[in-house]
Design goal:
Chain B: InterPro entries: HypE (IPR011854), PurM-like_C_dom (IPR010918), PurM-like_C_sf (IPR036676), PurM-like_N (IPR016188), PurM-like_N_sf (IPR036921). The complex is a heterodimer of chains A (771) and B (339). Chain A is an alpha/beta fold and 771 residues long. In chain A, 33% of the residues lie in helices and 21% in strands. Chain B has nine helices and 13 strands. In chain B, strand 4, helix 4 and strand 5 form a beta-alpha-beta unit. The chains are: A alpha/beta (771), B alpha+beta (339). The complex binds fe (iii) ion, magnesium ion and zinc ion (2 copies).
Chain lengths: 771, 339
Amino acid sequence: MAKNPAARSQKTARYHVLIRGVVQGVGFRPFVYNLARRWAIKGSVLNTPTGVIIDAEGEEKNITLFLKEIQENPPRLSKITFFQAHELPVRGYTSFQILSSETGAGKDALVPPDVATCTECREEIFDKNDRHYAYPFTNCTNCGPRFTIIREIPYDRPNTAMAPFSMCSECAGEYGNPGNRRFHAQPVACPGCGPQVEVRDRNGKIAAGKENWLQKCWEIIQKGNILALKGLGGFHLTCDARNKEAIAALRQRKGRDAKPFAVMCRDLETAEKYCLLDKREREILSSPQAPIVILRRKPDAELPEELAPGLNTLGVMLPYTPLHLLLFSGPFDLLVMTSGNYSGLPLVKDNARALNELGQIADYFLLHNRDIVNRCDDSLVRVIDGETHIIRRSRGYVPHPIPVLRQPGGPVILGAGGEMKNCFCLLKNDLAFMSQYIGEIDSVEGEENLFASLINFQRLIGAVPEIVAYDAHPGYASARVARLIPAREYLAVQHHHAHFASCMAENGMGNEEAIGVILDGTGYGPDGTLWGFEIIAGSYTKFRRVIHLAGVPLPGGEIAIRQPWRTAAAYLIHFLGARGKQAAESIFKDKNLDVLEKMIVKGFNSPLSSGCGRLFDAVAAILGVCLENTYEGQAAIELGELIREDRGSTASLAYPYEIKNGVIAPGTMIAGIIKDRLSGTPAEIISTRFHNTVAAMVIEAVETVSLNLNLKKVVLSGGTWQNHYLFRLVKKTLEKRGYRVLYHRRVPANDGGIALGQAMIAHWRWLKKCV
Amino acid sequence: MPGMKDKELVLLAHGDGGLLSRRLLEKHFLPCFSNEILSELSDASVFTVEGGRVAVSTDSFVIDPIFFPGGDIGKLAVYGTVNDLAVSGARPAYLTASFIIEEGFPLTDLDKIVLSMAEAARRAGVKIIAGDTKVVGRGQADKIFITTTGIGFLPPGVDLGYHRLEPGDRVIVNGSLGNHGLAVLLQRETFGIASQVESDCAPLNLIIEKLLQRFEGIKLMRDLTRGGLATNAKEIALASKADIWLEEQALPVDEAVKGVTEMLGLDPLYLANEGKFLVIVSAGEADTLLSFLKEEGRSGNASLIGEVKAGKGNVYLKTALGGARKLNLLAGAPLPRIC
Ligand SMILES: [Fe+3]
Ligand SMILES: [Mg+2]
Ligand SMILES: [Zn+2]
Ligand SMILES: [Zn+2]
C-alpha cells in the first residue's frame, strides 16, 4: 500500500490495449512486463493472432506513462503499426502476468523478419564458460531466425521449425523468466537441446559431427574445395575468396560465367581492408537485416579478379548467424558466399535436395537438422548519396510490410510480379506485403516455387486475394500461375505502368497525375512490341505513353538479349543503313552480319524493342565491353563501370539526338558513338558521354511533357535506374529545375518491385469501379 | 497446234477434261505411276481386301518452296501420308493423288515432281492407284498443291494408342531433329546462309514394320512433322494425360542445324521433320529397340530421349543444369521475356 496520501488519492484505471505490427518474436512481451513492474501496473499481456493485447490496471498517471513509453521506446526490432487503448471497469488485479499465446481466426499480427546475431549472443558463443559456447544456433529475443522458420501464426515455438526440439531445463528456465534476454524467444536453443550440425561428403557419408565440424570445414575450404552450407534461408556455396582455382571451379560447376559472387567477410574491419565504406554503408552492413552491400572495391585491394569480373565493386555481407560467426573464427577472413543453386533455379533449402541437386557442385555439405520453412535469399542493397537503395528485397526485410496510401477495408489484392526477378505482393488494407525473392519463374521449379511461396505467404499474412493482378505479357509463366489462384477478379497490367505505380506507392502517393520516366529492359507493350524507355503521364488508374525511344528490331528475339552484339548491329543497320552496316562489319569482324541484316530487313523473328536496357546493350557491344550477356544486365552494368566522373569537359558532352512527334531518335547519337569509337576515343569517355546523352533525352522529354500537361512530379522506375550515375545526374538536374523527383529505395526499381505496382493499380481501378 | 510456249507451261485447258487433260495424264502421269489398278483408268479403282483392319489417312501438301535440298513437294506428298499410316501401325499399300496446279506452272517442274513421287512410292512400296488434276487461274493457287490419301492394312495384333502409355515407358527418336524445317526455311527465306542442311524426307514404313514385328512393347508412335518434337510430344501428353520428360542432352540435333537455328533464334525442337518419328516403348525393350534402330534402321543418331511419367499432360525438358522447362504447343515466335 502506498503511504503517500496524494498517491492514494490517484484514480485507479484499467485499459485494454491492442497493439499491432511487428510485435511478436521481438521481445515485446518481456518489455511490457518489465515496464509494467516499473510503473506498478497489474494485469496481463497476451500474444494473439491479431496482435498483442495488454490488460493494464493501475494509477491513471502511471498508465499514461506506461503507454507512452511503449509507443515511444518499443524494443529495437519491433514496429508498431496500430495502437488502440480503451477504458474498462476496474477488476482489482494483484499481479502482472504474461499469458500464453492464443490461437484464433484473425491474423493481423505481423510475422517478423530474420535478425542477424546480436552482440550479446555473439559474446556467448565465443565465451568458453558460457553454455552457448561454440553453439551455431544461439539466439535470443533480439536476434535469430524468424520468417524462415515460421510455418503458421501466431509465432510460437510449436508453429516453427523448432517444434521438434524440446527445451532443456536451463533453456526452459531462460525462456520462462521475464527478466531474461531469452524470455519467450521461440527459437531458443543450446548444445544440450537444440539443432546440431554435421558435415557430409558428396556421397552423403558423414565427414564430421558436432564436435569437429568447424575444423573439418576449415580443412575443406583450405584444400580449395567447395562447401555447401545450410544457412538461414537456404544453402550457400562457399569457398576461399582468395583461391582463384576454387572460384573458377565454382563458376564452372554452377554454370555462372561472370556474374559477380558475393563475399562474406569476418567483420567490418575486414570489409574496410578491401573496400571503401562511408558511414551509411557501415551502418547497413552491420544492421540487423545484414544484407549484401555493393561496395566500391579499393583499387589496390588484393582480390582475385574472378570474384567480380569487369567490375569495380564487390558485394559484401557480414556473418549474420552464429554458424557464420564460428566459421570466421578460423583461418579465413573472406569467403565466397553465393546462393546454393544452379543458375536460374530456386535456392536449395532442404538437406536431401542439397545432396541430390548440389552434388555436382559442392565437394562437402555442412548440414543441420533444423528445417528451413521459408526459402529466403540474401538481400542486396546499394548506398547512393547516403540513402540505401534495395536491389533485392528478401532476408531481413521480408515479410515486413511497406505502408501505402490506401483506405482500409478494400479487397485483398495479389500482384503476381514479373518473370525474371519475381517477387509477389499481397496488399491488405494499407500495408503491402512484398514476398521474398522468388527469382526466375521460367522453369518448372521456378513455377512451383512461386506457387508454394504464395500459399505459405498467404497463410502467414492471413490474407486470401480477392483480386489478382499480373503482367500483360502473353508468355509470362507468372501470369499463368496468377490465373490459377482462385479470385473473383483478374487484371492484366502493363509492365511499365506497374513499374510507375510501384514507385508512386512506395512514395505514399495517392491516385494523382504524375510524369513517369520508365527506363527498363523489355516489357510487353499494348501494341505488341517490347517497351522499356517511356515518358508516361498518368496515375494508378490510367496512363499514356507520351514520349518513347524509337523501336529497333531484335534479330532472333530473346537471343538478342543474351547477345548484345546482335542488338548493336541492329541499331547500326536500322538507324544508319549502309553506313551502319559498314561500321558493324568493322567492329564485329567474326559475326555473320549479312544474315542479321536479312533478318532485320525481312522482319524475320525480329520483334521491335524500344527498351533502354537494349540501348545500353547495343552501346556496350559497340564499345567492345560486352558482346554476350552471361547474366541479366551484364552489358549495362559493365558499361556503367566505365564512367569517369572526373574527366572534365570532353566527357561531359552529350551526343546529338532528336525528339520528334513523341519519338526519341537515337540515330545521330549512334553515329556519334561510332565516330568516337573509330577515331580511338577511350571507351570511358564514350560511355560517359552516352550516359549524359540518355540523361539529356530524359530531361528534355520530361520538360516537354511537363510544359504540356503542367505536371511537376517525376517518378523514376525501371531496372536502368540502378545505374547510379544516370540516377544521380537526372535527379540532380530535375530537382534543380524545380521538379519533385520520386524514386525507389525500399522497393527495387527492377522487376522485383512491379508486384507492388500491379496490386496498387488493381486497387485503384477497383475503387474507381465502385464509385 | 499448241506452240512451244504452251508445251512448257500448264494451261487452264489442261484442266478442262478435254484433249489437253487427256494428254497431260497420258504423257506426264501414267508413265510414272503405272500399275495394274491405275492403268484401268476407270472412274474408281478397285482392289481386294483380305478381311482385317484398313487404315486411311489423307493430307494436303502446300509448301513454299516446292523444291528444296533433300526433296520436293512430290516426295513429301508420298512420304507424308505413308508415314502417317506407318506410325499408326499400318502397312501402307495404296495412295491416291490429287493435284491443283496454277495456270502457267512449268510442265518440266511438274514432270520432276511426278517422277519424284513415283520414285518415292517405289521406295516406300506403295502404289498410286487413283488421281485427279485441276488447273486454276493465276494467283488462285500457289504453283502446285497436292493431296494424297493413303490406304494401309493393320497387321493382326497391332494395338497402338494413348491408352497403352504407362509410367516408365521410354521415348525414343530415330534421328536428328529439325533438318527438314530448317532446309525449307533456308530455301524460302534466302538468308544467304551457306548450309549443308537437307530435308530428312524419308519413308518410315519399312523400318516400322520391322520394329512392330520384333517389339511387342511398342505403345505408340508418331511422326514429328508440323510443330516438331515439342508440339508432337505435347499433343501426346495432352491426349494421354501422362507427363513426358525429355532430356535436353539426349536430343539429337546436327551441329549444322544447331549453328543456323541459333543464328536465327529458332528452336530446333519446334521445327518440322519428314523422316523422324517417336517411339514410346516399354522400359524393358527400350535398349534393344534403340540398337535395332541404329543398326537395322541405319539411324546412327537414334536416341533414347526421355520417359513417360504419371502426370497431367505436361512435357518437361530437363536441362543440362538439372532444372526443367515446360514445353508447349508451337504458338508463333515467342516474344522475349527477359526484362
Ligand atoms: Fe521491368
Ligand atoms: Mg497427316
Ligand atoms: Zn541475441
Ligand atoms: Zn537447452
